[in-house]
Write a structure and sequence with these properties.
alpha/beta; Rossmann fold; five-stranded parallel sheet; 7 helices; globular
Length: 124
């Protein structure tokens, strides 16, 4: 099981996987790929502020069909409780995404340097 953050989901959706390291590509090819449910909310937010144009359901549906993307169903309360311990960022999306992945010490693929600096299982 491997998680991707919102930025990586958008890159995979738009065919920009060349931006990922070879290690990240290998990990994505070898594991089931998940997103935190909060990624869906962040995609909606990005649509609303016109940073992306395609809808959440289109993006997630496409990635589900193409790469087998799954939405994690871990306990929301457990994720929030863990996110409350992540004081190294004020970004609520990042806190939830990292908390979701770190509940079981899963790998998270991200380009976010702050996450890479603070979550030891994050890769780019």
């Amino acid at each position: 099981m491997i998680y991707i953050d919102t930025h990586i989901a958008v890159w995979l959706y738009t065919g920009q996987s060349e931006k990922l390291s070879n290690h990240a590509k290998e990990m994505l090819n070898e594991h089931e790929i998940y997103i935190s449910a909060i990624v869906r909310l962040e995609l909606q937010y990005l649509t609303e502020i016109q940073r992306i144009t395609d809808g959440v359901n289109e993006i997630v549906g496409d990635l589900s069909n193409r790469i087998g993307l799954k939405i994690c169903d871990k306990s929301f309360n457990a994720i929030v409780n863990h996110a409350m311990e992540l004081s190294w960022t004020r970004d609520p999306f990042d806190r939830m995404i990292v908390a979701n992945a770190s509940l079981n010490s899963d790998v998270l693929v991200t380009k976010d340097q702050n996450i890479l600096d603070h979550y030891t299982k994050a890769i780019f």
